[in-house]
Structures
1.
Amino acid sequence: MDFSQVELTAEQQAFEKEIRDLLSTSWTPNYAHIALDHDRSPDSVRLAMAKRGWVHPELSEGEGGAGLGEIEQEIITALFEEFYIANNANNSLLIPTLEQHGSAWLKENILPGIRTGELTTCLGYSEPDNGSDIAAAKTRAVQDGDVWVINGQKMWTTWGNESDYVFLLARTGPIEEKHRTLTMFLVPMDAPGVEATPVWILGGGRTNVTFYSDVTISDNYRIGPVNEGWSVMSTPLATEHGAGVVTEGVVPINGSMGAGFSRTFEKLIDGAIDWAASRKGADGRSRLEDPLVRLALAEAMLDLEVCWNAEGELGKPMAAEALAANADRLADMAAPEGILDFGVDGSIAAGIIASERQHAPGSAIYGGTTEIYRNNLARRLGLPRPY
Amino acid sequence: MTTTLRRNDYALSDEQDQLVAMLRSLFSEQSPISVVRDAEPLGFDEKLWATVRENGLLTISLPDSVGGDGGGLIELVLMGFEIGRAAAPVPLLDHVVAMRALGRLVDSGVELGSFNWESGLAGETIVSIAPISTWELGAELVPSGAVARAVIGFKDDAIVLMTRDSRAPQAPNDGGSPLAWWDPSDPAVQVTTLLAGEQAAQLWDLTHREWRIATASSLVGILASSGEIARAYAVERQAFGVRIAQFQAISHDLVDMHMDELTSRNMTLKAAWLTENEPEFRPELASMAMAQATRAVLRSTAKAVHVHGGMGITLEADVSLFYRKASSWSLVGGGVRRDLQDIGRAIDRRAGERARWHENNAIVKG
Ligand SMILES: Cc1cc2nc3c(=O)[nH]c(=O)nc-3n(C[C@H](O)[C@H](O)[C@H](O)COP(=O)(O)OP(=O)(O)OC[C@H]3O[C@@H](n4cnc5c(N)ncnc54)[C@H](O)[C@@H]3O)c2cc1C
């Protein structure tokens, strides 16, 4: 057991300062940017980071990273949080899979840009008729000589309008064979026949429907063997779900999405504290001293600590639900200002609570719903499959 | 301002694992559920207490300087996990927390009056602690108060030791816990002031935090047992021709109970480690561990009962025993709202950090 503070070496301190300087000169913190798991870093920040190998700093310099360790990675994460910047490139989910299963051509021509972060990716799993039942995908890829022709429709392709590639799940055999006739592809989003149209969601964010009409790509874009898609996608899916998180070192134990949501939750509490500190009650005292405000804030802080202590795959459902419940709690604590929109005069930390109240329900859905998580967790507890 | 990082390592050492294995087999052999039932309504078993004493469990978490074996709060938490798991009817946690506090006083040269240290060390005299004295004057309900002869408390900004020559009568309660009223104005109770002033307040705060952490650990044990019992039942019991664990309404509750157990466990370990090694850092973690374990044990034991259908509410079912223990082991410290009040210190600290951050950084507001 060890919860001690890490003594940063002189190099690590210099590294911290370098990033802090970069962020503080290229970005102004903005209360509105709190969806730290869902949002993407702005291009200006991402490209500046990419130049230095800091988008995937764990990779070696030769691979497009900076050969940095866990501590440097956590410094980056902490600073991005401090500066209200999402540090989210789906690429890290895909890199190991592309390394393992990508064609020689793809590894030479595309993987390097994905590693540095100059190229971006999105995930094309869900469809209009199936989300949780991901292996029921209907989007079809048919081989024609040495090309593939793709037809179909994906739903919720988040960042599909601004990514270079989509990691696409396609059907390559009889649909009745479900898991055994799926194949993965990395499809260029600028290929003829690919189209992304917006879907506007609670909280003002955008995701997309993506359409694929006779999209023709070379076999070089296939990821892994034909009809082995289910096993190829299992690694990135498990990583996204937060499996395999180590319970030592400085990395939080609550998995990738769990930690992302917890950081958003932290920002929500900070915003609520900023608000309370700026308001006075009728007795002339700061609302930070108001017992009702303190009770709500203490409950929120307690829930946040619980999230940080929810390990691995427990992390996401715990944090998603805590985020939604506490956005409600804090909106109620600060009622009626708690419901004011972003930027409106008198709103809480520029509307942080109202906007998170709108965003939070999605966190219990994307990347696998909390029910699907509970199904998986139940199996790990040795319980039988649902009836 | 610079970034600070902390390690997040919850793993037990080999020695700690061995301690857990020893405790698990000791309590499962010496404190099966029949012993727990026979110890009711008082909630105390003399023979088990003798076993605890003979096995040296009372001195593991006391420092060498006062005759202990040099272990600390983490070892105490590991004992708490196993005591809770067995619902063992012994006041070990209250006793050791109180002895740790008295040991600190001894170490700083405070006289303990008529209190016989050796007798406490051996567990002949059972000592307990009065958490409620932090907020309330006069008579109060004391955990393990019906078996203790000495109780450490905090009155009028001073640490006091209350003693009596006979046992206080038990206040009958939900879970058959040896709870009792201790009234400082009762002629049977002698009150000795041990330490006053700022140092007393600090030592009491630390003691109170240790008590919250130790108590939380026993609740984690109750969560572990009641969860296991409910899972075992759910994979056996059939309804509509399937095992009830195949209904998501059941299995998802079982998952939630498991989440309650693991988060409470992790929070207790983390609070114990930090309180032991860096008592100044995030002092609210003790109350957080206690509040989480309390709300978790109350709702999760209720779910464990519900999973059993009608059987769950029979007195005969083991699960109903854990349900009863859940409230009387958790609420004796004053309840979750008191913990939340204490978590308030984190609000003030964070507000200060935010104010400093705003001094150095601009932020877009719309
Ligand atoms: C903001 C946002 C961003 C997203 N981004 C992406 C993305 O980038 N790429 C991508 O591929 N997808 C993305 N998704 C899709 C997401 O993964 C799916 O929405 C999710 O998996 C649920 O699928 P569904 O919407 O089809 O709901 P359904 O599967 O139709 O589920 C409806 C309800 O039924 C419940 N349910 C379904 N099956 C079960 C079961 N077996 N047991 C119990 N309950 C069940 C669900 O929990 C849910 O409450 C995103 C979604 C959102 C909201």
2.
Amino acid sequence: MFGYLVKRLLQMTLVLWIVSVIVFLMMSFTGDPVFMVVPVDATDAEIAQARRLLGLDQPMPVQYWRFLVSLVQGDFGYSYVFRQPAMTLIMERLPATVEMVLVAMVFALVISIPLGVYAGANPESKISRFIMAGSLLGISLPGFWVGMVLIYLFAVQWGIFPSSGRGDTAEFFGLRISLLTGDGWHHIVLPAITLSLATTAILLRMTRAGMMEVGRQDFMKFAKAKGVSRRDVLYRHGLKNAIIPVVTIFGLQLGDLIAFATITETIFSWPGMGKLLIDSIYRADRPVIVVYLMLVALIFVVINFIVDLVYTLIDPRISLK
Amino acid sequence: MTITIETQTDQPLLELKDLRTHFHTFAGVVKAVNGVSFKIGAGEIMGLVGESGGGKSVVGFSILGLIESPGKIEGGEILFDGEDLAKASDERLREIRGRDISMVFQDPMTSLNPLHTVGDQMDEVLRLHSNLDADARKQACIKMLESVGISQAEERLKAYPHQFSGGMRQRVVIAIAMLAQPRLIIADEPTTALDVTIQSQILKLMRQQIADNGASMILVTHDLAVVSEMADHITVLYCGQVVEQGKTRDIIESPSHPYTRGLIDSIPDPTDRMARLNQIPGNVPDIRNLPKGCNFRARCPRAQDLCAEQEPTLKPQHNSLVSACHFPLQPGEK
Ligand SMILES: Nc1ncnc2c1ncn2[C@@H]1O[C@H](COP(=O)(O)OP(=O)(O)OP(=O)(O)O)[C@@H](O)[C@H]1O
Ligand code: SF4
Ligand SMILES: [Mg+2]
């Protein structure tokens, strides 16, 4: 177990290092950030001066080394635009994104698992066909369109939910969280539904496919022969065997939504990371982009690790090696 | 029309009347069980024999209501203690499964859930069908595992199926089937995964358990040697139909149906390991497309023109035998 953790940690570090190289190269080949920091009417001397200050006059390897050292020290530099530490900017917005994504993922799970189990256990029934048709819609409808329709119906027409913003938040260990206030919940429903739609559909289809596969297994019939109730046959015996690929996709989707909730955040004016990222890309605000990319890489690596741990909890044949 | 062996005057524990179970596949209707009738009295063991594809397992699944789409029980009665299980509700069947009737599945490698411990899968039966508390259930599981010959049973309860060999899994499955002391055990090739010595040991144990509980058993196998030691009666299936029934001794000593004769002749002689097996020549016909007349005709040494014309029906023969053949073997005839 300890050996495994050490190995895993080294692996994760390696991945992050590779990402840092890629990020660095990407940054070096996309535009000259020096023009972000100097005034429009700067003289050549001033530009050269700024270049020196930013370290851009050094050879590439030296630049990378400095980049890496500051990454390791947690020093991501100041945003060229906001003149604030890039890390602080991201951290202010991260909770908003994460909480919206988590609510979306909970929605997705609560809906997709029971429906997927039902559709997998009764592939022939009318209701299953209806569910599957619905899931196809969920996959193919673009999120921004669904978001706008939801806003039109629930906010504009019926006034049930607000159409934008995060509502009231409460402080929790210095983080601003909407889920601690009723108003926050009120605001989060529509964006979370919008964000959850495609994931729900994917998880539902995975669950159904898994259940259909498992349904053919002898041990399901044997469980029935023991007198186990239909529900327990499906959930205790079936779902547990069908869930591993669902867990995999769940992990990937979780990372994906945190990284790319941008469109939903834009539609609902949700003050998350996504919007900051877009703004930063427009303005070539390098430090912010770097923090963002490294953070996303870290999130993916950590989720991946947790998913692997979950596998071992589900299946005794999978061991930590 | 049902002609069955009259063994007892009182009500049998299980009586199948003209059971028909068909599978509606894309390639045609598979009449896996097509008019099977038999009776089993309390405390009796009935051997259900026949070659692969004869419909033995489907008979077992039908009794427990475990036939799934595209299969369907098309007709007949399954009278268990006088109650027709073919018409019983799902709820009722669930009560009966595991408690009154249990089944040992054919393939021990796939019968157990890979993600639950052996102990949990055993305990599940007692949770469902007994009022014992957790501790008593555990003791019962340990005792049952030990009695099927698994040592260090308490430790093994915590193990998962993949940590068991095929033979051990088979024993676990048998233990599960016997755990709630059902009145009828359907044992579908219960000892195929075991080597010969353990095979007879397990069979003895099952017979003992059954005798102790006054239970009955349907012993499904293609091995007539096993059946001849264990069973009181034998039912021989061919292409989903009963071709011969009778008391074990009568059948083994002097069968009346050529198919049964063929099965007996193909029992390997245990004293002469080098002897060539007298397998029945030819193959079982395609069950979706059965020939006119007798299904066994293409392989039958006694076949005559009539056999191609007319389907034989079950008729009483010598001793306790009932068989479906136009030209049955006479007592002592080979
Ligand atoms: N789910 C199913 N779908 C279609 N056909 C089936 C199904 N289950 C069984 N059958 C068919 O029913 C017939 C009888 O099958 P069954 O499994 O009862 O034979 P068996 O006598 O148990 O043979 P074996 O000795 O190989 O176990 C076979 O022709 C088989 O192909
Ligand atoms: S009816 Fe004819 S073909 Fe069929 S078993 Fe009897 S003798 Fe053989
Ligand atoms: Mg079988």
